[in-house]
User: Fold these one by one.
Assistant:
Number 1:
Amino acid sequence: MVDHKVDIESCECNIIHQNIIDKVKETMPEEEHLYDLAELFKVFGDTTRIKILYVLFASEMCVCDIASILGMTQSAISHQLRVLKQSRLVKYRKEGKTVFYSLDDNHIKQIFDQGLSHINEK
Amino acid sequence: MVDHKVDIESCECNIIHQNIIDKVKETMPEEEHLYDLAELFKVFGDTTRIKILYVLFASEMCVCDIASILGMTQSAISHQLRVLKQSRLVKYRKEGKTVFYSLDDNHIKQIFDQGLSHINEK
DNA sequence: ATAACACATGAACGTTTATTCATATATTAT
DNA sequence: ATAATATATGAATAAACGTTCATGTGTTAT
């Protein structure tokens, strides 16, 4: 009968059992998905971008107005909108000189609400 | 009759209407909450921490085993566990020399699932 | 054509952050 | 006591990030 003890390189401790390792491997999404997930949350990890998204929850809006509501530079907002655009969280439509930004995702609000639940829990 | 046109300092454009500003102010949580929210997502915005949390979805685990599963240094994992602890996302229990970490929040999985939904949508 | 305006973008700067390395603390075994 | 082990942590380093400043692009009005 074969002994299924685990022996992992870089670590001397042998507390883990094979069934737990197997379970972890089942539960764990692909490396690429985990990377993308971290990238997404990195986008949410900035107050300015969070504020922009909350503003857009209320209404589509032009860059200049977002900047004015948040009391920030047009340039700063524009840079951040680019990040949000790249993550496909916002979309835009042009109307003459003006560019109107709006939300391009249904999950954002729910993610934020879950986040606030965590914060307000304890 | 008073004209309710909006005139905001730092910005020349006057596209916004008062009712939209009002709506934004209703929808927007307090400054402090927005800050905390960004801080929380900052914690999720790192592949190592995401992986640690996914490992803990499967089972409570000691530092050494997490390090071994993720193929990383014990020190690196320990530093990151500290961040997760500070955000009250994980808790620990000591058993002799060993410290077992486990999840301390019910929202994490749902937040991650919503995030993955966004990623896999388009 | 020229000026004015809304927005985008590249470079630079200061700050934050993740990992590494060395070392400290705490527990267990001899 | 001493050694071994599991974990924590401070300092250092390199990379990533957000804002500012200056300037570029495209549209509208004169």
Note: The mean pLDDT of chain A is 86.
Number 2:
Amino acid sequence: MKGVPVLRMSTLFLRTLREDPADAEVPSHRLLVRAGCVRRVAPGVFSWLPLGYRVYRNVEAIVRDEMDAAGFQEVHFPALLPREPYETTGRWTEYGDTLFRLGDRKGTDYLLGPTHEEMFTLMVKQEFSSYKDLPLSIYQIQTKYRDEARPRAGILRGREFVMKDSYSFDVDDAGLQASYDAHRAAYRSTFDHLGLSYVIVSAMAGAMGGSVSEEFLAPCESGEDTFVRCTACDYAANTEAVTVPAPPQQPVAGLPAAVVADTPDTETIAALVDTANSRPDLRHPDRDWTAADTLKNVVVRLTLPDGTTEPLVVGLPGDRDVDLKRLEATVSPATVAPFEEADFAAHPALVRGYIGPGVLGTAGTSGIRYLVDPRVVTGTSWITGADEAGRHVFGLVAGRDFTPDGTVEAAEIRAGDPCPACGSPLDIARGIEIGHIFQLGRKYADALGLQVLDENGDLVTVTMGSYGIGVSRAVAAIAEQNHDDRGLIWPRSVAPADIHIVVAGKAEEIAAAAEDLAGQLEAAGLTVLLDDRTGVSAGVKFNDADLIGIPTIVIVGKALAEGNVEVKDRRSGDRHTVPAVDAVAELVALVNS
RNA sequence: CGGGGCGUAGCGUAGUGGCUAGCGCGCCUGCUUUGGGAGCAGGAGAUCGUGGGUUCGAGUCCCGCCGCCCCGACCA
């Protein structure tokens, strides 16, 4: 931001708050509100005030510059979109209540774009028809709308937000991989320049469709995504995308036959294990039974986008809970809900507390789809329900006594679980999703008929990638990672100004010296916030400066008597005196370093 | 979606069915102050989220709705 006039606190449209707003919990929300950066307008909808908007614009400019530098071309779509393209790809339905829908005066359906794959696909279809035109990567920076069930944490998860979304178009898989890699590299550079620390994790494509997908997560407590990181190798994944390593299959020959036992009042795993260990006829010959010896069968109700529902049973070791997010990610776009009384009433074959594989499976008597955890491999032996009240079966062997319809990744992931890549223990942490890159493949091109002629004159369907950066969310993520108990600490690259000058003292020479310094810094191309308020005590100004979080604070005050000013580093708190005549050179060097 | 908590001035809050809804911060005026959230005096600012109900009387009790925050969603 060269040549920007000095911002003056005396006239700035800003009111800082001395106390935390009562409705803000996470640090970024609290501090962005207190520092006068944003204000809430409606649930999940925020306005930007001057200081916050400067940060926002800096973030946006860095994103734009990086995209341009990578050779991607900027376009711009409307946020208000017609229904038809989204109907064609099925997302008018798949997006469900998350889609903001509206009608015009004639009753025609419109939507506010949650993301723009359809529009980009159609635009390329309209303009290009030859392989010679590809590869192509185009992007926009635009306001998106998603009617989130639960907006939260200020601008971390809003219903209106700004996203940079890119789309790549290639004739073949190798081209898609190259475009994907180019975006991945551009994203790394972007987040580096934004001053964010991040990890790249394997992810689930979800409703977006496609195969390969990675997320850029900014690790922090307030994050909504849980991810794992290997303590030994470089494996990292969203918990939704972690694949549980399957143990080797065991020979079934020689295993004892399954035995059904009366086990009254053992509707919970804990009660079942206690009973099994306390009864001589059920005891394990060598050791105590544990919950991991049981096969727990959890029933859920899937709701498909068209509103129809179907039951699904997930079988998993009894010491594990079902992670609904993981399950939902694998069955998307269907949603998952717990099975309720009415559901059990409709399926009498399911005996609560005693459900077992006996009746399960699409080929079983119940006809209910039965998927199991990858640990339930052929040859493993289980204690599980006998499908009769008060009875369990011991020694039921997978692959011999029952055959599930398939496996599913739905069990909770715990710290210490083995890494799927190397077997070392996994760590668990939380992060904010700041970027997501997908190899979409041909889902949208197929649905919308995006084809080009190849060098042989044959029509081929284009393969696509889609890539998003949460621009407004990045502002909040940066705030989450860069603050202390006194306020924000912006990275230099996005700070609302380069230098914050505090006029500490009422002497005219002090004000004049501060003005002079501000003018020189401005002339040198730095952006300056000058606290020139009169009648405001130095303490108030110092506190506001710490709250606002410009990385370098220059105090013009009592040191001026010796011809000095003080330069304070916001992050470290270190301060030192500098001869006023040398200040400009030092500050320019500091900012450009 | 479910459960819990909350909603009083720009912000933070007190208010136990009964007087003109109180306090701090912020804001305005004046004077004094001015290096880590100054002092004194005076002042403006509230349909107590909203709609209904109970009551002689409701910020206070009841119900609906809206909004905010937190937790939860399976234990077979």
Note: The CA atoms of residues 25 and 153 of chain A lie 7 Å apart.
Number 3:
Amino acid sequence: MATQLEPAVPREGTGRKKLLAAALDLFAERGVSGTSLQMIADALGVTKAAVYYHYKTKDDIVLAVVSPAIEELAAIAGEAERKRSRTAQVETVLVGIVDLIVRNRSLYAVLQGDLTAIHILREHGAFPELSNRILALIVGPDPDPGTIVAASILLSGLHEAGFGPRVAGIGDEELRGHMLDCARRLLRHRRPSAATA
Amino acid sequence: MATQLEPAVPREGTGRKKLLAAALDLFAERGVSGTSLQMIADALGVTKAAVYYHYKTKDDIVLAVVSPAIEELAAIAGEAERKRSRTAQVETVLVGIVDLIVRNRSLYAVLQGDLTAIHILREHGAFPELSNRILALIVGPDPDPGTIVAASILLSGLHEAGFGPRVAGIGDEELRGHMLDCARRLLRHRRPSAATA
DNA sequence: GTCTATACATGGATAGAC
DNA sequence: GTCTATCCATGTATAGAC
């Protein structure tokens, strides 16, 4: 189920968990390729070799950081695909993604925003068509261009809206509500779509 | 680092322009820090040193690539700030930005999406508060959180919506229309019920 | 003016001491 | 398990040949 309260990447803990938390902070601030293993080591007060003890490569760290979110996304997509009504599909995706973003604000920004991260995910076969699956769930079959544009703005806009300093002062519950509100406003197109077919 | 103005008259022509075009393509695809000078040189069929002949540093290339867009953004902000009605201010910003994005689809993605690029801009004093100026123009004075969220989604969503493969098949004029449509839908908020806060 | 050659730093990664 | 020392590739940048 998509409704759990813990962030995907724990902020406390020992060994790997602290490493992942530090890496996430740096990734979110500097980008993946703007973050060196040295920086991660420094943030933890250890040496590069200590980092390599936990993960064999930098790519592994990136994957470890983002894969919880990817798995959750996949679960959301799967859950939505099992719904039969279009309305329920869209709603499941929206609520699931917004929830995921709000629960761990910076993680999703890395996932969606960083081209290096996206390349790494592609190379390792993670989320190949997941992104398209989610878009398809939102726009439905035979979407008109206006819907595609709206969904694109929505999907890429949500991530920054969850992370940027602009919304830092807004509480989780309220942010969640506003995001869903925006999503519904964007997707409620007043075009009957009868014209095309 | 003296403020030596470069040979301001790019008389010999297409050298730099081709370089900037190649750099932009790579930045848009791999990100700034994922792009090496070697890649740029290879794309042009020259050597790294030839690239250094045109620009002294990599940062200079980044600045040269994005500064036309920044200047346009600044002009848009300035024009909007001179309008007296709020409606005209918002409209000027929206139309200006959407226009800029559509005219130049990948450039804006680099500008907004790449953390390395943003760091470079900050370090060189370019667009310090430009981003905040534009947000302020859109949300107006004393914005409620819902408006801030909507504007954040909009501003960060537009760039990917202008560049991503999803919209690649949509013509400029149509894309422009849909983007403006989305923007207006997002910003036309009904006030949240007073009970909540 | 353009490239060759190269300096110099950093980054990723490994072997092995403790 | 964690760190020291180190290797090697790459990246930025420069000096100087042509």
Note: The CA atoms of residues 110 and 157 of chain A lie 13 Å apart.
